[in-house]
Amino acid sequence: MSDTARTIRVTVWNENVHEQREEAVRARYPEGIHGAVAAGIEENLKGQVEVRTATLEQPEHGLTEEVLADTDVLTWWGHAAHDKVADEVVERVQRHVLGGMGLVVLHSGHFSKIFRTLMGTTCSLRWRSEHDRELVWTLKPHHPVAEGVPSPIVIPEQEMYGEVFDIPDPDELVFVSSFSGGEVFRSGCSFHRGNGRIFYFSPGDQAYPVYHHPDVRRVIANAVRWVVPAESTRDLPRLQNCPTGWFENADASKARA
Amino acid sequence: MSDTARTIRVTVWNENVHEQREEAVRARYPEGIHGAVAAGIEENLKGQVEVRTATLEQPEHGLTEEVLADTDVLTWWGHAAHDKVADEVVERVQRHVLGGMGLVVLHSGHFSKIFRTLMGTTCSLRWRSEHDRELVWTLKPHHPVAEGVPSPIVIPEQEMYGEVFDIPDPDELVFVSSFSGGEVFRSGCSFHRGNGRIFYFSPGDQAYPVYHHPDVRRVIANAVRWVVPAESTRDLPRLQNCPTGWFENADASKARA
Amino acid sequence: MSDTARTIRVTVWNENVHEQREEAVRARYPEGIHGAVAAGIEENLKGQVEVRTATLEQPEHGLTEEVLADTDVLTWWGHAAHDKVADEVVERVQRHVLGGMGLVVLHSGHFSKIFRTLMGTTCSLRWRSEHDRELVWTLKPHHPVAEGVPSPIVIPEQEMYGEVFDIPDPDELVFVSSFSGGEVFRSGCSFHRGNGRIFYFSPGDQAYPVYHHPDVRRVIANAVRWVVPAESTRDLPRLQNCPTGWFENADASKARA
Amino acid sequence: MSDTARTIRVTVWNENVHEQREEAVRARYPEGIHGAVAAGIEENLKGQVEVRTATLEQPEHGLTEEVLADTDVLTWWGHAAHDKVADEVVERVQRHVLGGMGLVVLHSGHFSKIFRTLMGTTCSLRWRSEHDRELVWTLKPHHPVAEGVPSPIVIPEQEMYGEVFDIPDPDELVFVSSFSGGEVFRSGCSFHRGNGRIFYFSPGDQAYPVYHHPDVRRVIANAVRWVVPAESTRDLPRLQNCPTGWFENADASKARA
Q1: Pair D163, C140: CB distance under 8 Å
Q2: Are the C-beta atoms of A34 and A55 separated by less than 8 Å?
Q3: Which of A94, B155, C104, C239 is deepest in the core (most CB within 10 A)?
Q4: Domains (ranges, CATH) in chain D?
Q5: What is the pLDDT of residues A210-241, one digit of tens each?
Q6: Which of D140, D165, D184 shows the shortest C-beta gap to B184?
Q7: ipTM reported for the complex, 2 dp
Q8: Which of C100, C150, C247 comes nearest B255 by C-beta?
């Protein structure tokens, strides 16, 4: 934040399972969902980002300590293979988020191990895949994540996600969606955990071409920019034993930055 | 809440380790920390509660499915043996909390597996055990958890807990403490997770007689009453597939209660 | 709260203008909107409440110091004559709310002087009176205000209220509505101000028979019960000059209750 | 935010009464409190700001429609003459804040008409002017307003402000202070109202040289930067009548930006 000129290092993660199993998904997302998400970020943040992708089938799911240490913002898409993600990778990602790495969780990622671990709740919801029209309404028009998109964003066909969405109260509720079937959903939510920022954005599905929608791509790019950490290195909160008067020592009380 | 006449079934959990290892702790808490906590709840909620205790060394730590199903409110104290608590018991407690069981987390319980699991963060803090005086200030004088206690509560000797306390923003910040060394701490915090309520209250330590302090006992009893679930049976949030128009069927839209 | 057996003294306020001007409204609400609201509270809280009504045309709008001092919960409905409410009555009501009196603000009361004064914002919104169907979704199924009603509550015909609703973030977001036209609205919101609780609930309009809907009546009654103050007398927050060590004097540190 | 290169136009407002009445204050703040606050902002945001000052005794208190329309961020200091501020100027400032202008409220400004109007509460607190040492603790180390300052900030002598501070729950609680007398205070709080951001920061007083403290000056400058609106023109939330399907018209659904 303090150094706005810094290039944002983004890692777009995708389980990449539907694309391999289902021809229709492959046709819809020829570069994979990760390819579409990455392209949307790049086109909206031209010259401000370096985007790489990582997928489930790679060693350590492509999320080694080195990759995460070199990542400012991780985006997460998963659906069919949440339980295939290794617990130690989940713990590693959690540690990086709490240490400052930004995290953007997309759609069915609500049920990923990493999101459930960070939320502490079931993250369950109502759903239906019946070509509902989704309208994404902005509740905070001047929030940076809502910049440049209409309210509502009109998504002609999409999976329905409905309340109750079992999450802790978000720190900010930026978007609420309605569906043609009548349901509502908190579709854009921010959370702070440790020194990291998290944004959950629900539009997007393997069965609909939502990640080609220019407004959806803009929101994801906005979210990436919004969760960028203040510092490029990790700062994990930790237990500290502090003798009486420790802060009266000038060296001990130096500013974080 | 709806049935205020219902007896509150409380299970007071304690790792019960310091009491067995250290004579000074045994002298301070002859009935164990769990004994002191249970006595404080009983004296403040006479006729409204049934209190049992459970400890680490019991089979399944005394927290079987049957015990939890029969518990409205669980209180948690642990310190030296957090890592001895079995993961499956932690998952079971989490499931009961998300399903509605109230949870009161005490002092060093901030580092318990169950609290960290429900918060999703490190729950780390600053600390010092040097006989600081703690003053517990009420920020919400009409909150039920603050009923009947002075502001500040004066605790002559106590371990210092200081910020940064790495938790999600609490839903309500009821108490903030200062210490004679100058530090501050969010000492009384409420959280809603799933259908359950959680209250964290920091005063209380094995090395000081804080659980004999009448105001501390009153707050713990108030917290027990405040986290009581609306229903005596568990209601875990769950994924629901909902066909279009499901709610127009009268039977499908029946009220929760 | 501490004394659940206490009778709740409710004052139902209504500007009572549409009922006098428009025959259709009089036919819909023969006892006035205040009559319908009062009846709904009485039928749901039988034996727990004493309900009186007050209207704009009465001296001091029926809200004298004596009436307010004798009121635990005030409900507010206004629409056509917000600017006819005297500023000194608004200030008096505000003082009572900050001192602990509960306030339930209904529908077009979003634009009342008292609600805008307590919120500090414009409280503006989108609207349309075109017989939309409203669906009121519960986000917090175990919240006392949602007790006993289905999710969604189906209101066959109602005025549309849509986001952006210009209010401070509510302390709790209990209900979100969708409308057949596609809009969404935060229709059930709680706020704490001073020592008082406020609940805003949007369903209900002079042009539709919404206050005869049993679920709407149930929610209003639940809200009345939820905003009841902890104490029957007012406790307005006030400036206090405190000499060093004031709280070490036992008398000075007596508990609130 | 979107245009980080834009110069921030700051208006520093001060009632400027103590400085004229009391020689000691004049000696402490030879350029007035507004002069010290302005200098602190300029030294920390060199090249990023244009700072002007305005005071009570000027026509319309120096806060004409033209000045406010040309202001991105207004800072407010008042104490002895809150009731001398004209109601119409307060309403004008409120309108500009809700339309997007940032507001930084300092110390005794907690009791200003504008802050009370925006909060809706009494904004009362405990106080004592007896040379307490204040320690300002950061609760959110990566919040932009906490950038570059130690935790705690040590203020050798300061007026004591203590809880209960009667404000709505802040959107973010960035700083909590303790005082040598033992009290605690929420000394750094953010609020969103309408399309505007507000930051309240309590350190600073006419009777102590706190506005010469480099860390206090840094926080005020950080707060100024943090409340800068997304847009340079005002966007007051307003009532909108929306016919069914209005958003399906492409022109009607254009993005805010």
Answers
A1: no
A2: yes
A3: C104
A4: 8-254 (3.40.50.880)
A5: 999 999 999 999 999 999 999 989 999 999 99
A6: D184
A7: 0.95
A8: C150
